[in-house]
Design goal:
With 302 residues, the chain is mainly beta. It has one helix at residues 2-30; strands at 38-43, 54-65, 68-76, 84-92, 95-100, 105-111, 119-122, 132-144, 147-156, 161-166, 170-171, 189-195, 198-202, 224-227, 236-241, 248-254, 259-264, 270-274, 281-289, 292-301. It has two domains: 38-202, no CATH class; 224-301, Sandwich (Immunoglobulin-like). The strands form four sheets. An eight-stranded antiparallel beta sheet has the order 6-5-4-3-2-1-12-13, with no helix packed on it. Strands 7-8-9-10-11 form a five-stranded antiparallel beta sheet, with no helix packed on it.
Amino acid sequence: MYMFKKYKVQVVNTWLLVVVFLMLSHVLRSQSLLQDNKQWNVYTPGVCLCGFYTEILYIEGDTLIHNKPYKTLWRSDDSLNVIFPYRYLREEAGKVFMHNADNQTTVKLYDFTKTIGDTIHITNALCEDTSITMTLTAIDSIEYDGSFYKRWHLQNDSAGFTDKWIEGIGSVHGLVYPAYQLCSKSEWDLWCVFQNQQLQFKTPGTTVCYSAPVGIAEIDTPVFYTRPNPVYSGQAIHVHTKHVLPHSRFVLRSLTGAIHREVHSGQNYDFRISTKGLPSGIYLLQLIDNNQNRQTTKIIIL
């Protein structure tokens, strides 16, 4: 009887270990990369003349492109004071696709379906017209704050560079910059990932999540104001600037990135932008000064 009970306990324990392993494997596989209110902070030394800055990539909102659902990826270089739509991303069956509204191209950004030894063909936001070939050399896991993340090790044999992809996080060089080495001599390094403003992941060895170059001022107050907002289709959007912006233009975009209106303010403090013929929805009014995006305001047309 004792031996039977002991054997029974061993069987139960074995099955419990199997169940726990299967549950853990499922958790690792089911981590989604693209979620609303998710943010990536990417350190970019040498990209601008200022020496470095922290690029923030942020997911918020859905849109349809060619009848397929995409997440809107926003970008900011100044702590989210100014944000603008950067790319549109779709996650499907272990693959991630990226759409560029400017040239209407869609490319494959990630492929998590491959096994060790497989060849992967991807591209990134820096060279969307180039196919990058990588070989999956190993798969392991990385631990952060008590959570384990599945990790893919990749290598480009011809150029000799490597990359690592972390499930639910993306490339260690930033969400839309896997294998950036083929396209740029500058650097992109992922620092932190947030979900709903809570820290989800920090790259090992990283001490901070944000850093700005000395002498680069952030926007404390808006440069322009609009009214009314929301506005009914057919009504004009009244724009008031705090000072004359002789070299500026205002661009009204849809969330897909398409430009619907473009106005040069010139020497005017106040001017109007027509909404005649524009369908109801959410738009973005961007102030572009000397080819730099200075402020973006959300406009709702009813």
